[in-house]
Amino acid sequence: MTDGGADEGRWDFFVSYAEADREWAEWLAWTLEENGYRVLIRAWESVPGTVWSALEQEGLRRASRLLAVVTPAYLESDDGGAQWQAVRESDLKGDARRLVPIMIETCAPGSLGMLGTRGRIDLTDLSGPADERVARIRLLDGLRDAQAGRRRPDSPPTLPVRKQATAGRMRPAGPMPFPERVARATERGAPGPGSGLSNDADIAPAGTGGGAGGDVPSTFPGIPSSKPATCSGRTRVGAHTDLDGGRDADELRRLGTENPGGPGEPANWPAYEALVSRATAPHVLAVAGRLAATAGEPPEFRRLLLGLCRYHYARGRFGESRDLAERARRHWLPVLGPDHLDTLAAGHHLARALFALKRDDHQRAYELDQDILSRRRRILPADHPDILASANSIVMDLRALGRFDEAYTLALDTWERRQRVLGDDHPDTLSSAANLAGCHYLLGDHPESLRLNKDVWERRRRVLGDHHPDTLASAINTAMDLYALDDRRPARTAAEKAFVRCQEVLGHDHPWTRTAAGLLREWREQ
To answer: Contact 505/267 with Cβ under 8 angstroms?
Structure first.
């Protein structure tokens, strides 16, 4: 019943387990063989005369898939670790889905390492004869999904009811329960003080003004980054338009047709700068200053204003980003309502700018992010990118407030959900991975922080390129990890290269450039 993942394969599945979990491994093997699969399991193969080590190597090479029976005991097993890592090396991107974790017991946060980056079959809530039927269905369905490479429903979905509010409020008919995962994250206490990296997040314009966006990841307190964006359909910036009487919707809509591309991309910054330059017409900020008189501005103009918030933030102009976001939010609250996606996006930008500007504003940023998350949960699907962006922002707020354990729990959950929804190499997933690495750093686990940051750095170099701002952030993160582990020469080399590239790409005054310069100066003095 192989699906062609290993056309020379003798087995469909190699069951990898710790001896303490042999009962689970044998149940899996029996269930699979009952359903026509070919299974290699040490408990049944180690008969007199067999050389298991030779059979093991053949199985790792020729079995279509390895099933890792994941428990805390398995994570401590040298044999199990060597087996799943060997299969992972043969399928790094997961295209063939050769490594399938079967979660039997809940493991400590962060203990899964790279094993946690793979989609898994979860049996942690099942045990004993009463649950066997459900466990069997879940196991077989999950493996069929792994073979097929996708999970398509058997019946057609119904047309969804639109959840977006276009104005005013959208209040549920009944009381809403407090979200379980966030509740667990905020009920835990914080450890003692520490130092380390931070990671910021942002979202693209959402709602009627455009589709949902993702993070603008970073790793230092108050330092932004960006996600890749295309710049198709760009119109010429700086067209001469008389805005003295341009408060009507048609004039604002024409202004909203300016499409300078992704605000996090340095290549697009000249186009954004032209839009906010006082020497250029139309001057967007002059129009934004008269928002009180433009209650009917079209969604295209709102999208442009949100893009300008991100642009200022990406340039390190946190005060300008805060002022524009606060002005837009104050205007849109009575006009669009507090639950409109554009109002929420403006609030999100405001929270990130507050976080970046002043230590005293971290609590305000946290409260604002919590309010935005609760409102988004009411009107958006559970794993919508905007909800995950809010969760990622709350991680940074918690870290800034010294609540490191809570930040870690939420960071791990957000990372795992983004892996499931977006994939391992999506820029937002990599942002969450970098954020999780920052939590490890603050908790003193520098080896794990280094491992995560090096992986994120390599993925960003492959996906985004060596000179992308996110890649530069990862380079500086990795340098800080190396220095914390007393590997000082590679740390300085990485920081020096990042400093030069930051100067070239971001300019001498950008916060990242100053951070890299500060690290090098501090390390020289030590």
So the answer is: no
Q: Please count the residues of the chain.
A: 526
pLDDT computed for residue 110 by the predictor: 67
Q: Among 330, 390, 385, which residue's Cα sits nearest to residue 355?
A: 390
Whose tokens are 């949100």? That residue is 306
What confidence score (pLDDT) does residue 229 get? 32
Q: 65 - beta bridge partners?
A: 13
Mean pLDDT, rounded, for 301-322: 87
Q: Given phi > 0 = left and psi -120 to 50 = alpha, else beta, which region is 154? A: alpha
Angle at 215 between CA 483 and CA 330, to 5 degrees: 120
Give the model confidence (pLDDT) of 253-304 as tens digits. 555 566 778 888 888 888 888 877 655 444 555 555 555 445 566 777 788 8
CA 139 to chain centre: 28
**Cα-Cα-Cα-Cα dihedral of 449, 452, 458, 463, to 10°?**
-130
Burial class (CB in 10 A: 0-12, 13-18, 19+), 275: buried
Q: Is the peptide bond before 156 cis (omega within 30 degrees of 0)?
A: no
| Concatenated DSSP letters of 421-480 | HH-TTSHHHHHHHHHHHHHHHHTT-HHHHHHHHHHHHHHHHHHT-TTSHHHHHHHHHHHH
Question: Across residues 396-406, what is the average pLDDT?
Answer: 89
For residue range 89-126, what is the model confidence (pLDDT) as tens digits?
Answer: 888 888 899 999 999 998 886 678 778 778 899 998 88
Please provide the distance, in angstroms rounded to a whole number, between the alpha carbons at the two ends of the chain. 62
Q: What is the pLDDT of residue 117?
A: 77
Nearest residue to 170 (alpha-carbon basis) of 286, 343, 11: 343
